[in-house]
Amino acid sequence: MAVSVKLMSLTVAALGVTSFIFGVIAENKKPASGTPIPGKGIVICQYPGDPTVVLGYLSVAFLLASSVAGYLSLFYPYQGKSVPRGAMFKSSSFSAFFNIALFTTGLAITLLVWPTVTEQLHLSRNVHHNTETACPTAKTGLLGGGAFLSLDSSLFWLVALMLAGNAREDYFDEIAEKGTNSESLKSSA
């Protein structure tokens, strides 16, 4: 089965939507706080069993897979015809959306990893020497924001893929035009 633009688009979109779904579920399943259990000079925080950490990491993994697929789809030699990267970046709209896709991917990774790691630390370091501890969890809203940016990122990769198709066509038109002009010069000489 040959790799096509349509297949790559579906792959990027499916991975991005999956990342979004995992991120939103992780945000919704995150507990508001833990239950403090006082001890002798310490407080042990007991947290309900929740899949936030696992879902957060799954969201990050699918975001990375979507972004790698998006990046690779831009420069893949479809139908055996490769295009130099410099020719792709001649298009200012392609360059802009490529950079926006990279930026949103980085921001989405940050907003997904930060609360996921924080939540994991809260769960593993649950003994506190401050008897006033309220058993915190990761900041609310970051996972949901990261999930939406993950979806945005995959959409920007798709727009960049469409613009790469236009840049690819322009490149091959220029090559064909140069070939036609050089042949007409040879025949007139």
UniProtKB/TrEMBL annotation:
This is Uncharacterized protein. One of its GO terms (cellular component) is endomembrane system. The keyword Lipid metabolism does not apply. It comes from the Eukaryota. It comes from Cucumis melo var. makuwa (Oriental melon). Belongs to the DESIGUAL family. It is found in: Endomembrane system. Keywords: Membrane, Signal, Transmembrane, Transmembrane helix. Pfam families: DUF1218. The chain crosses the membrane at residues 54-76, 96-117, 142-164. Its main location: membrane. It is a multi-pass membrane protein. InterPro entries: DEAL/Modifying_wall_lignin1/2, DESIGUAL. The lineage of its organism: Eukaryota, Viridiplantae, Streptophyta, Embryophyta, Tracheophyta. The keyword Transmembrane applies.
